[in-house]
Amino acid sequence: MHIIVTIKQVPETDKVKMDPETGTMVRSGLESIVNPLDLYAIEEALVLKERFGARITVLSMGPPDAERALREALSMGCDEAVLLTDRVFAGSDTWATSRVLAEAVKKIGAFEIILAGERATDGDTGQVGPALAAWLGIPVISYASGLELFADLGSAGAEKGGVPFAPSTVRARRLTEEGYQILETEMPCLITVVKEIASPRLPTLRGKKFARSAQVLRWGARELGLGTEDAGLPGSPTRVTKIFYPKVSRDGERLVARDEEGIARAVNRIFALLEEKGCLSSVPEAALATAHQERTSLYSKASTTHENLERASLDQEAARNHSAAKLSPTEPSAAELSASSPGAAKSAVPKPEVWIIAERRHVGLDSVSFELLARARTLADALHTSLAAIVVAPSLADEEVQALIAYGADSVIALESLNFDDFVCETWADALFALARERKPDIVLAAATTTGRTLMPYLAAKFGTGLTADCTELAIEEGTGLLLQTRPAIGGNIMATIKTPKHKPQMATVRPHSAQPLSPDFERKGIVLRTQALQPAESRAGTQQIAVRTRVLSMERNTKGFENLEGARMVVSGGRGLKKAENFKLVRELADALGAVVGASREAVDRGWISYPHQVGLSGKTISPEIYLCAGISGAIQHLAGIRTAKTIISINSDPEAPIHAVADLAVVGDLFEILPRLAERVRSAKTGISTEGNHAL
Amino acid sequence: MLYNRVTEEIIRELAVIAGARNVLLDPAKLEAYSHDETSKEEYAHMPEVVVTPESTVAVAAIVKLANRAHIPLTPRGAGSGLSGGAIPVFGGIVISLEKMNHVREIDYENLTMTVETGIVTNEINNLVKDKGLFYAGYPMSLETCMLGGNIAENAGGGKAIKYGVTSRYILGLEFVTPAGDIVWLGGKLAKDVTGYDLVHLIVGSEGTLGIATAAIIKLIGLPAAKSDLLVLFRSPQEAISCVPVILSKGLIPTAIEFMDRRSVETSCAYLNENLPYAQCGAMLLIEMDGRDPALVESEAEAVGDLCMEQGAIEVYVADNRTTQERLWAIRRNIAEAFKVYCPVQSLEDIVVPPASIPAVIPELDRIAAQFGITIPCYGHAGDGNLHATLVKDPEMSMEDWHRIEPQALEALYEAISKLGGKISGEHGIGLKRKEYMKRFMSPVELELLKAIKRAWDPNLIMNPGKMFDLEKGIG
Ligand SMILES: Cc1cc2nc3c(=O)[nH]c(=O)nc-3n(C[C@H](O)[C@H](O)[C@H](O)COP(=O)(O)OP(=O)(O)OC[C@H]3O[C@@H](n4cnc5c(N)ncnc54)[C@H](O)[C@@H]3O)c2cc1C
Ligand SMILES: Cc1cc2nc3c(=O)[nH]c(=O)nc-3n(C[C@H](O)[C@H](O)[C@H](O)COP(=O)(O)OP(=O)(O)OC[C@H]3O[C@@H](n4cnc5c(N)ncnc54)[C@H](O)[C@@H]3O)c2cc1C
């Protein structure tokens, strides 16, 4: 078996410091290391080598110095190393990088598995892996947390009596927002892995000695048959137009809550801050939890244009024109959509749409879909064009269509097929690719979730267009009408604004919870287009094969959600100020109301109020949530060590001198016993309150 | 002779001296100052009041007040001590230096820093790292402890083989005597025999002779290159026996840390870390540093080869910060991990001559078997300084433990003495070991110590009840 592992050399981003005076990054003393997340891919390759026998080639594109990263991989036990280094490659974006890597893989020759880290810690995009798979036309499984190899599809027998065999099928556990997806695919394939998969080994002395004398192949553009326009800046669809530094200082607002009035003010202020940070999902749960409900006449009052509810095939030009006509009745609809710039606003040609790829979960539409709509609405309005929500699903319920329109979509295009029950990158990408070829959208947005971050790079590689990951701001550039995509990079230490000047569609994934959904308008009218896309019989050559290559075997859903402190977006922590074990429930209740994970100081853990895995700090977990709310914690230096990278800190402590207040964005000097229950109540009633309103409107 | 209690009047005076916000009386707040990192159940004692002065003048005035009023005074750094040194056993006033953390001067020509002793030790290194300098005297608890605590305990760290312990880096002290006088001792001098070496009498005096409010510390060049080896052995004995072999070859590692299997396993479980310890009974963590990366690499390799010759199972190499931090985190977190997984324990820091290290392990095994306890062990093997940790087995009752622990400790110290060792290499005597020190120290030496104490602190107000007992009780 031949395994290729792609790795990147990166600066130690967790050590990056910003100079408070100049606002620039302090680069001195930064070491270059193997992307920490790639170490897990290397480790998994080594484990497979030990079990099945394999040859491992590590592959990296980078400056000549990246040879050190490759030698580190060799010293861990990899067999061969290839460094892609050439001036021509400098400045490549993820599209160009994956292209160069694809050429190199072809040159390396036959392989069974390509392993890659989930993402590199500097660029933080996670796009290269799926894009590389698209270039090579092989299946991709992203975010794998476990792998098993079998001799052929379905034969679940492990190594027969310990004798190695030639595997041909990979079964993977894939981490998603909902839990784990169990998938099976054929080799050759590309797998990106998450930390859970393995614990990287250290290089041995023997390995170091081998690595020092081993040969590292060096290939440049010429060796790969690439021209100067094929990589680097000229070969990259995206352009960084601006780099700036996010504000590092904390606002440090302080409230004193000594009396009734002060307490009420504090509760209001905390609530407002949580709301501002998007922590109180304002999407009616009722609108989301309808996926598998029967369609009933209950919704016949709804304002959807019903004539469009019957299933239409995308191939039926008429249906498309019909919908286009509905979207902008003043414009003739027969003309072919072109990928022209929106400068053509006054022409008779219907303008290319803005798309969002809506995201669904087991329970229905995910709130991130509505956030995407809010983003896209602004863009579509600026471009005077229409906004289409694309949904890939086995079937889309009317009330989901309803919700998408109420939250801003002009049209809803449902790609319906039983094949779409669970996310399979190639299958979805094929369907979307066909749809986009027809409709030629100007902009495509998806959520920066495990789905969006896998699907979009795969699609972008197929389109030959650029993609910007994990954007936190989007805007339309005056004059050019181009999409300005702003995203954090280098561990959030800098912000970069990126655009895709010459390629269409312009694609971006958007960080979940970075925007608020619009308030829904259930009177809005829109168009629905349903299509049973890509039935195997009608599919283009190759499609069917891909559809069969990867299949979902099962889903393991997390019913309770992640109790994962490190990955949590919101953490509510309690300390010794809670006084006794029973009181710790105040912290739990607020966390539950918010959907946050519970943390604690060492004092609380030592006293047995909560178990050690919840400890935050030097000897506990280091976390970087969007919101860290802590009550009854003094802010000892060891505790602060764990929350240095928290985005927003809210402290509730009765001691005005408590050090926690000095690092908090919102410091509330007050009694947690007064504040926590009221805050929890407020959050609970806000959530149910909105949902009641929502039901009412429906 | 009896101590007096802290009265309303005294509290008013403290507030005038230090400012009301620096006088803590709230019992909830005082609790944090009632213990250090030794077992709370066994040793904690509440102070009557805590003061957090912000200047040397305030410190001196508080000391004067206490001396005049015969109130016991306990200086305190970060409270990370492991001998109960900062616990106010007689109540009274705790004087915490946490707010005295300013850097007064960094002298790049003399390579010194003048800094108040409430600074967290690791901060010193953060401040000078970019200039290619470092303070080498730091202990493993560097992210927590304060310089004042290091001075008072003469702390030693993981780099002591090559760089020595705290005392080597303390050139001068701003010192408040038990009478409340402020004096500067020592200076930015490489040599100084002008009178008794009071600076180094104070270093290691556990806060019993007065309060160090600022220090002139020596900075040295930060070695550019570093390579760490994690060496796996089948048994603790094999691992430990390798240490004198390395040292006798003229290779000078900065650290040779020993960790037995139980220590590694516990720390790994605590950190959710994974090391390949399946067949391994113990590990050595060896660090080489220097200016020239190639030289460091070849020396590290020489040490690694030597270990393989000595029967090591495997040698792992960490030559970048990420992997190095991974290894050192395991070593640094052992103590914390044991606190979580076996809270009833006694953490020791016995020290023996380097050549006697191999003889320690069989003694530990013998004592463990004799008393029916387990004694996981780790520590600064290169310094002959080991953290044998006496751990209560879950089945043993607390009564049995309380009966057995002192006997086992006594047996341990007895064995160590026979090997030419001492009962504490770096954590100090404090409250925890004073009864034992008495028994393992010659009466003449003990009397010399007491004589110094009486001469410096005739009213016995300065950190009473530590190191040895003198004739004074609670009033
Ligand atoms: C080597 C080492 C490692 C450590 N690692 C960690 C670690 O990983 N994580 C960690 O947390 N600690 C760690 N510590 C311990 C740390 O030093 C502190 O002791 C601990 O963080 C204090 O916990 P706390 O804030 O809950 O308690 P305290 O410091 O006692 O603070 C309690 C706070 O509650 C407030 N309070 C009381 N009543 C109320 C009320 N009614 N309303 C509002 N506020 C109230 C008080 O004003 C006070 O500020 C470590 C210590 C050492 C030595
Ligand atoms: C996880 C862990 C690892 C450790 N590792 C090491 C190690 O590697 N090496 C080592 O030597 N120790 C180690 N220790 C023990 C401890 O950290 C050291 O003894 C440290 O020097 C204590 O510093 P502190 O500021 O916490 O002092 P405290 O505990 O606050 O006080 C210790 C003593 O110093 C006195 N004191 C404090 N400040 C002053 C002052 N300004 N003037 C006069 N007296 C003062 C106190 O009265 C007390 O007697 C470790 C502890 C922990 C918890």
Automatic annotation (TrEMBL), chain A:
Which keywords does UniProt give here?
Electron transport, Transport
A GO BP term, please? Answer: fatty acid beta-oxidation using acyl-CoA dehydrogenase
Q: Give the highest taxon in the source lineage.
A: Bacteria
Which GO terms label this protein's molecular function in UniProt? Answer: electron transfer activity; flavin adenine dinucleotide binding
- Region Disordered: start-end pairs: 314-346
Instruction: Give the matching SMART domains.
Output: ETF
**Protein name per the record:** Electron transfer flavoprotein subunit alpha (Modular protein)
Gene source species: uncultured spirochete
Output the lineage of the source organism. Answer: Bacteria, Pseudomonadati, Spirochaetota, Spirochaetia, Spirochaetales
UniProtKB/TrEMBL annotation, chain B:
Annotated coiled-coil positions are none
Cited InterPro entries: FAD-bd_oxidored_4_C, FAD-bd_PCMH, FAD-bd_PCMH-like_sf, FAD-bd_PCMH_sub1, FAD-bd_PCMH_sub2, FAD-linked_Oxase-like_C, FAD-linked_OxidoTrans_Type4, Oxid_FAD_bind_N
Q: Which residues form the FAD-binding PCMH-type domain?
A: 43-222
Q: Which Gene3D superfamilies match?
A: 3.30.465.10, 3.30.70.2190, 3.30.70.2740, Uridine Diphospho-n-acetylenolpyruvylglucosamine Reductase, domain 2, Vanillyl-alcohol Oxidase, Chain A, domain 4
What cofactors does the UniProt entry give for this protein? Answer: FAD
Give TM regions. Answer: none
Q: Which PROSITE patterns match?
A: FAD_PCMH
Instruction: Keywords in alphabetical order, please.
Output: FAD, Flavoprotein, Oxidoreductase
Q: Which GO terms describe its molecular function?
A: FAD binding; oxidoreductase activity
Q: What is this protein called?
A: FAD linked oxidase domain protein
Q: Which organism is it from?
A: uncultured spirochete
